[in-house]
Amino acid sequence: MKTFKAYLEEELLNELAVKGGLRNAINALKGMDIKFLKQVMKFPEPKIPFKYFESMDKKTEIQYLYRLGMFPEIEHETLKNASLSEKDKDTLNELIEKLKKSPRFDSVYKYQKTGIGPGEVLMYYMLDNAKLGGQGSTGDLIIGSNTYEIKAPLISAQKRANQFQIGGTINSDVEVPEALKLVDLYNKFYKSKVKEIKATQLTKFKKDDPKTYETWRKGFSQKVYKGYFSKHLMIFFDVKKGYIASIKKVQPKDIDVYRIMQRGIDYSVDIS
To answer: Could you tell me the residue ranges of all domains in the chain?
Structure first.
Protein backbone atom coordinates (compact mmCIF):
# COMPACT_ATOMS: atom_id res chain seq x y z
CA MET A 1 0.00 0.00 0.00
CA LYS A 2 1.25 3.50 -0.86
CA THR A 3 2.27 5.80 1.93
CA PHE A 4 0.49 9.12 2.10
CA LYS A 5 3.66 10.94 1.10
CA ALA A 6 4.05 8.65 -1.92
CA TYR A 7 0.46 9.42 -2.92
CA LEU A 8 1.09 13.16 -2.64
CA GLU A 9 4.26 12.86 -4.68
CA GLU A 10 2.36 11.01 -7.41
CA GLU A 11 -0.32 13.72 -7.48
CA LEU A 12 2.35 16.38 -7.63
CA LEU A 13 4.06 14.63 -10.52
CA ASN A 14 0.80 14.59 -12.46
CA GLU A 15 0.25 18.26 -11.71
CA LEU A 16 3.76 19.54 -12.36
CA ALA A 17 5.02 17.25 -15.14
CA VAL A 18 4.70 20.02 -17.72
CA LYS A 19 6.43 22.52 -15.42
CA GLY A 20 9.85 21.01 -15.08
CA GLY A 21 9.58 17.31 -14.32
CA LEU A 22 10.49 15.12 -11.37
CA ARG A 23 12.85 17.40 -9.47
CA ASN A 24 10.37 20.31 -9.30
CA ALA A 25 7.54 17.96 -8.35
CA ILE A 26 9.37 16.43 -5.41
CA ASN A 27 10.75 19.80 -4.33
CA ALA A 28 7.21 21.19 -4.13
CA LEU A 29 6.57 19.09 -1.02
CA LYS A 30 9.64 20.29 0.80
CA GLY A 31 8.81 22.45 3.79
CA MET A 32 5.12 21.52 3.76
CA ASP A 33 3.36 20.18 6.85
CA ILE A 34 2.50 16.63 5.75
CA LYS A 35 0.51 15.96 8.93
CA PHE A 36 -1.67 19.01 8.24
CA LEU A 37 -2.17 18.01 4.59
CA LYS A 38 -3.31 14.56 5.66
CA GLN A 39 -5.70 16.06 8.19
CA VAL A 40 -7.58 18.35 5.77
CA MET A 41 -7.03 16.67 2.40
CA LYS A 42 -10.33 15.72 0.82
CA PHE A 43 -10.87 15.90 -2.92
CA PRO A 44 -11.96 17.88 -4.73
CA GLU A 45 -12.47 20.49 -1.97
CA PRO A 46 -10.26 20.40 1.12
CA LYS A 47 -11.97 20.62 4.51
CA ILE A 48 -10.03 23.37 6.24
CA PRO A 49 -11.04 24.80 9.65
CA PHE A 50 -11.43 28.56 9.39
CA LYS A 51 -8.69 29.29 11.93
CA TYR A 52 -6.08 28.30 9.32
CA PHE A 53 -7.33 30.98 6.91
CA GLU A 54 -6.63 33.56 9.63
CA SER A 55 -2.90 32.88 9.66
CA MET A 56 0.00 32.45 7.26
CA ASP A 57 1.22 29.28 8.98
CA LYS A 58 -0.37 26.80 6.53
CA LYS A 59 -0.70 29.16 3.56
CA THR A 60 1.49 27.13 1.20
CA GLU A 61 -0.30 23.89 2.08
CA ILE A 62 -3.78 25.39 1.64
CA GLN A 63 -2.92 26.98 -1.70
CA TYR A 64 -1.46 23.67 -2.85
CA LEU A 65 -4.60 21.74 -1.89
CA TYR A 66 -6.86 24.24 -3.64
CA ARG A 67 -4.70 24.18 -6.75
CA LEU A 68 -4.71 20.39 -6.79
CA GLY A 69 -8.39 19.90 -5.96
CA MET A 70 -10.18 22.91 -7.44
CA PHE A 71 -7.97 24.11 -10.33
CA PRO A 72 -5.95 21.00 -11.32
CA GLU A 73 -5.81 21.51 -15.08
CA ILE A 74 -5.38 25.27 -15.23
CA GLU A 75 -1.97 26.79 -15.80
CA HIS A 76 -1.73 29.79 -13.49
CA GLU A 77 0.40 31.55 -10.94
CA THR A 78 -0.86 33.15 -7.75
CA LEU A 79 0.28 36.73 -7.04
CA LYS A 80 3.31 37.39 -4.87
CA ASN A 81 3.77 40.50 -2.73
CA ALA A 82 0.58 42.20 -3.95
CA SER A 83 -0.16 45.60 -2.39
CA LEU A 84 -3.77 45.73 -3.65
CA SER A 85 -4.92 48.95 -5.25
CA GLU A 86 -7.08 49.83 -8.26
CA LYS A 87 -4.12 49.19 -10.56
CA ASP A 88 -4.10 45.53 -9.43
CA LYS A 89 -7.71 44.97 -10.51
CA ASP A 90 -6.91 43.99 -14.11
CA THR A 91 -4.14 41.59 -13.03
CA LEU A 92 -6.47 39.89 -10.56
CA ASN A 93 -9.29 39.69 -13.11
CA GLU A 94 -6.93 38.09 -15.62
CA LEU A 95 -6.18 35.39 -13.04
CA ILE A 96 -9.91 35.04 -12.27
CA GLU A 97 -10.55 34.62 -16.01
CA LYS A 98 -8.23 31.59 -15.99
CA LEU A 99 -9.67 30.14 -12.79
CA LYS A 100 -13.25 30.47 -14.09
CA LYS A 101 -12.43 27.76 -16.63
CA SER A 102 -12.63 25.28 -13.77
CA PRO A 103 -16.11 23.84 -13.12
CA ARG A 104 -15.31 24.23 -9.42
CA PHE A 105 -14.65 27.97 -9.56
CA ASP A 106 -17.99 28.89 -7.97
CA SER A 107 -17.28 26.61 -5.02
CA VAL A 108 -14.31 28.80 -4.19
CA TYR A 109 -15.78 32.18 -5.19
CA LYS A 110 -19.12 31.62 -3.44
CA TYR A 111 -17.62 29.87 -0.41
CA GLN A 112 -19.65 31.00 2.58
CA LYS A 113 -19.46 29.90 6.17
CA THR A 114 -19.69 31.75 9.46
CA GLY A 115 -17.33 34.68 9.22
CA ILE A 116 -16.54 34.19 5.50
CA GLY A 117 -18.38 35.89 2.62
CA PRO A 118 -18.27 35.55 -1.19
CA GLY A 119 -14.89 36.29 -2.74
CA GLU A 120 -12.88 36.02 0.47
CA VAL A 121 -11.44 32.52 0.04
CA LEU A 122 -10.79 33.28 -3.63
CA MET A 123 -8.75 36.35 -2.68
CA TYR A 124 -6.93 34.34 -0.03
CA TYR A 125 -5.99 31.76 -2.66
CA MET A 126 -4.90 34.25 -5.32
CA LEU A 127 -2.68 36.36 -3.05
CA ASP A 128 0.38 34.70 -1.55
CA ASN A 129 0.78 37.35 1.15
CA ALA A 130 -2.85 37.60 2.35
CA LYS A 131 -4.83 36.05 5.17
CA LEU A 132 -8.48 36.37 6.19
CA GLY A 133 -9.68 38.46 9.09
CA GLY A 134 -12.78 36.60 10.22
CA GLN A 135 -15.39 37.61 12.77
CA GLY A 136 -14.41 40.42 15.08
CA SER A 137 -11.47 41.41 12.87
CA THR A 138 -10.84 44.91 11.55
CA GLY A 139 -11.17 43.64 7.96
CA ASP A 140 -12.04 40.67 5.74
CA LEU A 141 -8.57 40.46 4.17
CA ILE A 142 -5.25 41.35 5.77
CA ILE A 143 -1.95 42.03 4.02
CA GLY A 144 0.73 43.08 6.46
CA SER A 145 -0.69 45.99 8.46
CA ASN A 146 -3.33 46.84 5.81
CA THR A 147 -6.93 45.67 6.01
CA TYR A 148 -9.47 45.29 3.19
CA GLU A 149 -13.22 44.76 3.17
CA ILE A 150 -14.66 42.48 0.50
CA LYS A 151 -18.24 42.87 -0.72
CA ALA A 152 -20.12 41.12 -3.53
CA PRO A 153 -23.05 43.45 -4.35
CA LEU A 154 -25.07 44.02 -7.47
CA ILE A 155 -23.23 46.36 -9.84
CA SER A 156 -25.40 48.77 -11.79
CA ALA A 157 -24.81 50.19 -15.26
CA GLN A 158 -24.13 53.52 -13.50
CA LYS A 159 -21.11 51.97 -11.73
CA ARG A 160 -22.75 51.73 -8.35
CA ALA A 161 -22.41 48.88 -5.87
CA ASN A 162 -25.95 48.25 -4.62
CA GLN A 163 -27.72 46.19 -1.97
CA PHE A 164 -24.96 45.34 0.46
CA GLN A 165 -24.67 45.81 4.21
CA ILE A 166 -21.67 46.58 6.38
CA GLY A 167 -22.70 45.30 9.82
CA GLY A 168 -20.54 45.48 12.94
CA THR A 169 -20.87 48.11 15.68
CA ILE A 170 -21.62 50.75 13.05
CA ASN A 171 -25.07 49.15 12.83
CA SER A 172 -26.19 50.07 16.35
CA ASP A 173 -24.09 53.22 16.75
CA VAL A 174 -24.94 54.94 13.46
CA GLU A 175 -27.27 52.99 11.20
CA VAL A 176 -30.22 52.46 13.55
CA PRO A 177 -30.65 56.10 14.66
CA GLU A 178 -29.93 57.45 11.17
CA ALA A 179 -32.35 55.00 9.53
CA LEU A 180 -35.06 56.01 12.00
CA LYS A 181 -34.35 59.66 11.24
CA LEU A 182 -34.70 59.11 7.49
CA VAL A 183 -37.92 57.12 7.90
CA ASP A 184 -39.29 59.96 10.04
CA LEU A 185 -38.37 62.54 7.36
CA TYR A 186 -40.03 60.38 4.72
CA ASN A 187 -43.23 59.94 6.77
CA LYS A 188 -43.48 63.65 7.51
CA PHE A 189 -43.13 64.56 3.83
CA TYR A 190 -45.65 62.02 2.55
CA LYS A 191 -47.82 61.97 5.72
CA SER A 192 -47.37 58.21 5.87
CA LYS A 193 -46.49 55.63 8.53
CA VAL A 194 -44.03 53.29 6.81
CA LYS A 195 -41.36 51.44 8.78
CA GLU A 196 -39.27 50.59 5.73
CA ILE A 197 -38.39 52.58 2.61
CA LYS A 198 -38.16 50.51 -0.55
CA ALA A 199 -35.70 51.38 -3.30
CA THR A 200 -38.42 52.82 -5.56
CA GLN A 201 -39.85 54.86 -2.68
CA LEU A 202 -36.44 56.26 -1.80
CA THR A 203 -35.73 57.20 -5.40
CA LYS A 204 -39.02 59.13 -5.49
CA PHE A 205 -38.25 60.87 -2.17
CA LYS A 206 -34.85 61.99 -3.50
CA LYS A 207 -36.61 63.64 -6.45
CA ASP A 208 -39.56 65.08 -4.51
CA ASP A 209 -37.57 66.58 -1.62
CA PRO A 210 -33.92 66.67 -2.73
CA LYS A 211 -32.80 69.32 -0.23
CA THR A 212 -34.05 67.40 2.81
CA TYR A 213 -32.65 64.13 1.56
CA GLU A 214 -29.22 65.52 0.61
CA THR A 215 -28.87 67.26 3.98
CA TRP A 216 -29.55 63.92 5.69
CA ARG A 217 -27.27 61.98 3.33
CA LYS A 218 -24.29 64.27 3.86
CA GLY A 219 -24.50 63.93 7.63
CA PHE A 220 -25.06 60.18 7.44
CA SER A 221 -22.25 59.57 4.95
CA GLN A 222 -19.73 61.43 7.11
CA LYS A 223 -20.59 59.27 10.12
CA VAL A 224 -20.43 56.01 8.15
CA TYR A 225 -17.20 57.09 6.49
CA LYS A 226 -15.58 57.84 9.84
CA GLY A 227 -16.84 54.65 11.48
CA TYR A 228 -16.27 52.20 8.61
CA PHE A 229 -15.17 53.21 5.11
CA SER A 230 -12.18 55.33 6.21
CA LYS A 231 -10.66 52.28 7.91
CA HIS A 232 -10.40 50.02 4.84
CA LEU A 233 -9.76 49.82 1.15
CA MET A 234 -12.89 48.28 -0.38
CA ILE A 235 -12.84 45.36 -2.83
CA PHE A 236 -16.14 45.08 -4.73
CA PHE A 237 -16.90 41.89 -6.66
CA ASP A 238 -19.70 41.80 -9.21
CA VAL A 239 -21.83 39.15 -7.50
CA LYS A 240 -23.30 37.93 -10.81
CA LYS A 241 -20.13 37.83 -12.92
CA GLY A 242 -17.53 36.86 -10.32
CA TYR A 243 -15.03 39.52 -11.37
CA ILE A 244 -13.64 42.41 -9.31
CA ALA A 245 -15.57 45.55 -10.25
CA SER A 246 -13.51 47.97 -8.17
CA ILE A 247 -10.75 48.32 -5.60
CA LYS A 248 -11.36 51.70 -4.03
CA LYS A 249 -10.94 53.96 -1.03
CA VAL A 250 -14.57 55.04 -0.67
CA GLN A 251 -15.15 58.72 0.14
CA PRO A 252 -18.19 60.37 1.81
CA LYS A 253 -19.44 61.72 -1.54
CA ASP A 254 -19.61 58.14 -2.86
CA ILE A 255 -21.88 56.86 -0.07
CA ASP A 256 -25.65 56.67 -0.47
CA VAL A 257 -28.53 54.47 0.63
CA TYR A 258 -30.26 51.95 -1.61
CA ARG A 259 -33.14 51.20 0.74
CA ILE A 260 -34.07 51.08 4.43
CA MET A 261 -35.18 47.69 5.74
CA GLN A 262 -36.07 46.67 9.29
CA ARG A 263 -33.01 44.39 9.22
CA GLY A 264 -30.78 47.33 8.39
CA ILE A 265 -29.54 49.67 5.67
CA ASP A 266 -28.72 48.48 2.16
CA TYR A 267 -26.02 50.70 0.69
CA SER A 268 -25.38 52.19 -2.73
CA VAL A 269 -21.78 53.26 -3.36
CA ASP A 270 -20.22 54.95 -6.38
CA ILE A 271 -17.33 52.71 -7.50
CA SER A 272 -16.32 54.65 -10.61
So the answer is: 48-135, 154-270
